[in-house]
Write a structure and sequence with these properties.
Number of helices of chain A: 9
Largest sheet of chain B: none
CATH superfamily of chain B: MetI-like
Largest sheet of chain A: 6 strands, mixed
CATH superfamily of the largest domain in chain A: P-loop containing nucleotide triphosphate hydrolases
Distance between the termini of chain B: 34 Å
Number of helices of chain B: 13
Radius of gyration of chain A: 24 Å
Radius of gyration of chain B: 21 Å
CATH architecture of the largest domain in chain A: 3-Layer(aba) Sandwich
Number of strands of chain A: 19
Strand content of chain A: 25-35%
Oligomer: heterodimer
Structural class of chain B: mainly alpha
Strand content of chain B: under 5%
Order of helices and strands of chain B: HHHHHHHHHHHHH
Amino acid sequence: MLDADVEVDRREFTVRAALQVAPGERLALFGPSGAGKTTLLEVIAGLVPPRRGLISLGDRVLTSTVPPVIALPPWQRWVGLLRQNPGLFPHLSVRDNLCYAPTASPSGSALSELASVLGIESLLSAMPARLSGGQAHRVALGRLLLAHCDTLLLDEPYTGLDASLRRTLTDLVGSLIADRSIPAILVTHELPDAQAFADRLAVIDRGELLQVGAPNEVVLHPASRRVAELVGYLGFVPSGDKVAGIHPERVMAGAFPDRGLVLTGVIPACRPAGAGWEADLRVGEAMITCRLPDKPPISDGEFTVTVLDPPYFDAEGSAVLAARAECGITQPEQVRR
Amino acid sequence: MIWLALLGPVIALLTHLSGSAIASSLTAPGALDPLVISVESGLVTLGVLGLICTPLAWMLARGKLPFPRVWEAGLLCSLLLPPLVIGLLLVFMVGPYTPIGELLGHFNLSATNTFLALVIAEVYESAPYYVLGAQSAFASVEPRLEQQAGLLGDRPRRVFRRVTLPLAAPGLAMALSIAWARAMGAFGAVIIIAYHPAGLPLEIYTTLQETGLASALPYALVLLVVALPLPLAAYIWSARAGRRRRG
């Protein structure tokens, strides 16, 4: 179990977070750039000292700011950190990179087995400069696994790689983590990457953990309007004394009052998006974005959509789903232009 | 054209030398003593630079020293000072009537007109070139690679040996070879505080004064032959290391 409860001062704000990641569990730390995600990983890795905190990994205390004060140096932590830049040693071959850690065996069967799993067995004698981005990441991952790290920290490792390669590497990392039964944390500002990787999703903004939960739960039921904004809700429509969050991908054409909030407005513009269309829908003063499978009509005429089970927020931005049920509001009211 | 113009003095030297003149100059009794002295003092200078200036360059590159700009300004000052002025100032610093000179005297050493004085002059003339070159070499090593090595279980000294030093080595070799060339050719400070024993530059100067240009030219050739191979070897090795890294 990786257990971290830390406070780290940064220039603009203080990063405060309490995380527990079980062996074999994958946690995605999701948030905008500059939210403090990387700082948290660097604190766990021992590269940045926290102002206050306790970090333990299994039965080992890595950092403790309360007596007895403990601050294990990075080389005694056995924390694997994989960054966007794989950080391969350019003067060493792939084989020497893989076997860099003092605990890695250069001639053991572990090397050939892992190289085979990672698909880099034909690259062992190559120099890092000859590798593609995906190959370099595989080698860097293999190096961490051969070092027998007790936890894996992934700091936006797939940025710059194409989508299919990201997915392949994500699946590979997931299976290796499960095999090794080690806790893993992925830092990313790409929600699809976080969802593809994680058992649990933690949303962080300006150093504060806003919500932790199953990825689907966090996306469908954000705890606050800010979380909703971060996970992709692009529009907010007044609904009584509350505000409904509109996720573009949770919208379907037509009126289905039993499935959610029905909105009627006009579509001033739309554009192709993926295999469908992305349309702007003006509802009263609000403008929302919705993804539709078919091209909607652009006209002054009314167009009706249903927002599937939207989250509601009060004036302070807190989610009020539970309150809605308690108040007996089972059906959101229809908002008309 | 520019290349030929830059090499013009060397070409002129080669065209004005005859085999018989070289032989007669270099076979005279004691003719090779300046060469031996220059090589010995140069090697000691390189040793001093490697031991003392390498850690300084690393600390400057990694920002481990307080007031780094002050340190860099000091280095630039010593780089920009004319060698003759360095020699004059060294007299005031390590001359026989200074505290350092008196301290050396207790050990029967002197920092004027001795081999030690020659080494001191060469160190002062070459150190800025080495430190600035080595600082640049260390700065070119990504700190994140060192971090990564630490996270993989290496202690700092082991990281330095396995990552920092190999990656900085081509730049360090170039810096060291330039320092070697500067030490071999050191003259301005040397003529002030180390007139004896004479190394090659001083021998060229005294021969020129006493017997003329023709007699001095063979020593100039020897100086070039001694001073240039190391920088050339460092350049070739550095290029090869770069090619190897590129696979």
